Amino acid sequence: MLTRKQHDLLMFIHQRLETSGISPSFEEMKEALGLKSKSGVHRLINALVERNFIRRLPNRARALEVLRLPDAAAPTRPVKPQLASDRDAAIAASDNVVRGPFGKPKAQPVAATFVEIPLHGRVAAGVPIEAMESDRQLAVPPALLGPGDHFALEVSGDSMVEAGILDGDYAIIRKAEHALDGDIIVALVDDGEATLKRLRRKEGKVRLEPANATYKTQIYEPKRVRIQGKLIGLMRRY
Fold first, then answer.
1. Number of Cβ atoms within 10 Å of the Cβ of 53
2. For residues 96 and 110, what is the distance between their CA atoms, to the nearest angstrom?
3. pLDDT tier at 76, thresholds 50, 70, 90
4. Whole-angstrom Cα distance, residue 129 to residue 156?
5. Is the pTM of this model over 0.70?
């Protein structure tokens, strides 16, 4: 079964091949699906190749061949690059998307008792690691969510164990660019590494404090740290 992004990319490639006979570029695929980076396109294509929906043609640049379409695929409108405002409107018009205030898409119901939110890979609860994008989804109980947009991160490390956050937990994050001292946040350091820590500000510095006595507080200039969201819940597998 394909994810929505995988399905949309497959149909976009199929439509482009049908109309022009040439595979779309990675930049065109990124824009058409509203992805932030080409690495997301690579992951989607790899997933489609693994599921035998497409294959790469050897010794040819930008050469993809559609092997099959989803069994339930119905005629679709051509996918085209969209501006952000157009993309929001298109998403909101989908039968499977619930609209929030101002027509923005909200998390989608998987079943009556669960909601799907993006699962954006692993976040360090120790030394910062590279922030990863993903097209995966995580089903969570609606009671864990409140107003706003949310995403999930898989915790890697043990620096927050004294706050009850363990390696392998799923951190439920509400998107936010600001937080209060004492909040547990996802911080993006130098626009490339993400970490889950408690926020403190002191003497003009940003302090990212662990909840484990064996780890040291990380101290940065404010311009090096961007707040991505605040922790609002946890999910754990046993």
1. 21
2. 10
3. very low
4. 9
5. no
In degrees, rounded to 5, the angle at the alpha carbon of residue 61 between the alpha carbons of residues 42 and 45 is 20
Q: What is the pLDDT of residue 86?
A: 42
The string of DSSP letters for 22-76 reads SPPPHHHHHHHHT-SSHHHHHHHHHHHHHTTSEEEPTT-TT-EEE----TT----
For the question of residue 159 being annotated catalytic, the response is yes
pLDDT band for position 24 (50/70/90)?
A: confident
- Tell me what the mean pLDDT of segment 133-162 comes to: 83
CB-based contacts of 222, cutoff 8 Å, min separation 6? 204, 205, 206
* 38-50 helix and 26-33 helix, angle to the nearest 10 degrees: 100
Q: Of the spans 79-93, 108-122, 157-171, which averages the highest pLDDT?
A: 157-171
Q: Is 230:184 a contact under the CB 8 Å cutoff?
A: yes
Query: Catalytic pick from 30, 106, 197, 230?
Result: 197
Task: Give the amino acid at 63.
Answer: A
Active site residue: 36, 159, 175, 223, which one? 159
CA 143 to chain centre: 21
Contacts of 60 (CB under 8 A, 6+ apart): none
What are the backbone angles phi and psi of residue 88, rounded to the nearest 5°? -60, -40
SS3 content of the chain, % helix, strand, coil (to 5): 25, 35, 40
pLDDT tier for residue 127 given thresholds of 50, 70 and 90: low
* Rounded Cα distance, 151 and 175, in Å: 7
How many Å apart are CA 165 and CA 149, to the nearest integer? 22
Would you call 20 a catalytic residue per the annotation? Answer: no
